[in-house]
Specification:
76% of the residues lie in helices and 0% in strands. It has 131 residues and is an all-alpha fold. Helix 1 (7-25) packs across helix 4 and helix 4 packs across helix 5. The N and C termini lie close together (9 Å). The relative contact order is 0.24.
């Protein structure tokens, strides 16, 4: 089974990420966590996001068939996470809660916090049409 990444996959990742990024991006709790949560906790969230993306992708998208496709597997996880983070950044930018120039660390922390559920929504929607 060949797993490729095409425009259909990209649109599914974007829609899945958007579905969870929007409601969470509008919460003051997420904004405040970006201001107050320690960097060590942020990195733990990032790690958890990538681990859960890998587990779900391994089981669902790749159907446990990564023996000779490990680089493709890793690249797929990175692409899905980055696309979800881009959606989160765009939503936060639209609602004026992404202080990239004035507080770049807070902006990055907010993206990582909200990208955790958004990336899971992205990979779940992307997996709907897999054989």
């Amino acid at each position: 089974m060949q797993v490729s990444f095409n425009m259909e996959d990209a649109s599914q990742v974007f829609v899945g990420a958007f579905a969870l990024a929007v409601p969470i991006s509008f919460t003051e709790e997420a904004w405040r966590l970006g201001e107050t949560l320690a960097l060590s906790n942020i990195f733990m969230l990032l790690g958890l996001s990538l681990i859960f993306l890998a587990l779900f992708s391994y089981q669902s998208v790749f159907q446990r068939q990564i023996n000779h496709r490990l680089p493709v597997f890793v690249l797929r996880i990175v692409i899905d996470y980055v696309m979800a983070a881009m959606v989160v950044a765009l939503v936060l930018l639209c609602i004026d809660k992404l202080p990239l120039l004035s507080e770049p660390i807070v902006a990055l922390k907010r993206i990582i916090i909200i990208a955790m559920p958004a990336s899971m929504g992205a990979i779940v929607v992307d997996s709907f049409d897999k054989e």
